[in-house]
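Quick illustration for those who missed Monday's session on complexes.
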Amino acid sequence: MAEEIKEIKKAIIPVAGLGTRFLPLSKVLSKEFFPLVDKPVIQYIAQEIKESGIEEIIFIISPRQKTILKYFQKDEELEKILSERKKVDTLKQLHDFQDVFKGLKMTFVVQKEPKGDGHAIFQAAKYLKNEPVVNSFGDDIVVSQTPAVLQLMNIYKTCQAPVIGLKRLPKDKIPAYGSVAVEKISNNLYKIKKIIEKPQPSEIMSDLVIMGRHILTPDVFEYLKKAKPTKKGEIILTEVLGKMLDEGKPIYGYELNGEWLECGDKLKWIKSFFYLALKDPQYKDELKQYIKTIK
Ligand code: UTP
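Prediction with uridine 5'-triphosphate bound:
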């Protein structure tokens, strides 16, 4: 009998990294909470997941990370003060924000030590029942008509194997990313043949790179469980996926439609902020005028 196709209902967002590229600020505020115009990065990511039809987000947090709980939780005390002060519009804004995430279950799992993104993802294993799951890293957003996560979920329906979000970059940028060798299947869809994380220029295999969106299947968790830490003591998802490929497991790549906005280092975050601010109907005109005045 054919195996039943399992629907994707859960998503993991690991936010337990050290964010060393933003120190010392990231000592007190994790990079997932940096604002892009008027919302923290994490809100764009959670919204993309909700709009993709996911029912539960499993946040992987560090022992120090309390902000995330507070941010998504209702604040009765604050609402009481606002209502006593008759701040009707402000209260409405707060309620609108809460409505966006209504019906979405949020689970918080602690990664005791920052032992790599793969190790963080593995912390969600006990909340999964032999089912496929979305992984969205906490420092990448995609502005697109169809949410990026939904684009990958649609591919999973037909291929029933791990799917990695891909983007095209100029060759000189690729050494900082995961490079892939691919075989084209159809528009935007590829079978991944090999992955090299942070390749030397001579090792670059195509102009496609891995970005922070994945569909992971239960066998990925088997590999994560067995994975040996790197010299730095980390388990890295891309390396684990590379090993699966070396052992003949199928993995697909989908070149995502949309604008990829990265927020993992200072310049990337500043660029992403500018991109969104200059597209925002409320601010763009005045901002463009203002920029012209800067000498
Ligand atoms: P990054 O490598 O981009 O984040 O991890 P980082 O390690 O926090 O940043 P730098 O390199 O020190 O500046 C990708 C995602 O995985 C999470 C991060 O929070 C980010 O969302 N992560 C990484 C964990 O949850 N745990 C880890 O041990 C490592």
